[in-house]
Design goal:
Blueprint: H1 2-36, H2 41-49, H3 51-84, H4 90-102, H5 105-116, H6 123-129, H7 137-148, H8 150-163, H9 166-173, H10 178-207, H11 210-216, H12 226-235, H13 239-266, H14 268-275
Helix pairs in contact: 1-13, 2-13, 3-7, 3-8, 3-10, 5-7, 5-11, 7-10, 7-11, 8-10, 8-14, 9-10, 10-13, 12-13, 13-14
Amino acid sequence: MNARRLSAGRLALIASALIALSLIVVLPLAMVFHEALRQGAGAYVAALAEPDAWAAMRLTLLVAAISVPLNAVFGLAAAWTIAKFEFRGRSLLVTLIDLPFSISPVVSGLVWVLLFGVNGWLGPLMQELGIRVIFNITGVILATLLVTLPFVARELIPLMEQQGGDEETAAITLGAGPWTTFFRVTLPNVKWGLLYGVLLCNARAMGEFGAVSVVSGHIRGLTNTLPLHVEILYNEYDFVGAFAVATVLAGLALVTLGLKSALEWRHAGELAAVRRH
């Protein structure tokens, strides 16, 4: 009897979770695609073929292509330093890496305005040098870099701490140099955790809205990423265009989710070690 009650309770919880996910995730996602195709495939394709939409797609991919590798390199170096060495300021470094998680994305954008805006600390110097950061692609990249900075490092730090430094010490004892040790021992041990962090970083980079909105200036065809372009189209009552562009973001998110799920399935043990922390 107890086993039956337990089984019934488990089924009820699973059913409740599935219903909640269907209402919160699946139904809104289905409505996005429904609204995008409401006027037919022709209108959908025309909305995606618009020059401003293409410009937003290119900029979104460009920003991700720049910010994700940079954060991957930074995250790998920061995780290696924090996990393998003891030094003064180690806790401060970890806190600074976590800082973008705790502040609003809008604040992350305002930081760059305060630094490089016309009345910012470095604004006059940037004007003299002829360098434009705010309301330019440079500002969009910097804002995205800041909000995506913790993802790779935060996936690698607990994994490297758990692995310890015995293998690196053995390699150095056998005569391997620092770079050989890094590329032959350290990097292979964390490659799947690194890839997992890169996927999360990429998903956030392509979907970032708040920080990018502050620094972009919403210049159509120049500084609008896909999320900003969706907002502009929606505010102009171009609902089909807005939802059509939104499906591109949704598609990119689904691809990222699929890659993430495949990675978790193939390397469940190592990724479980990452998530334990």
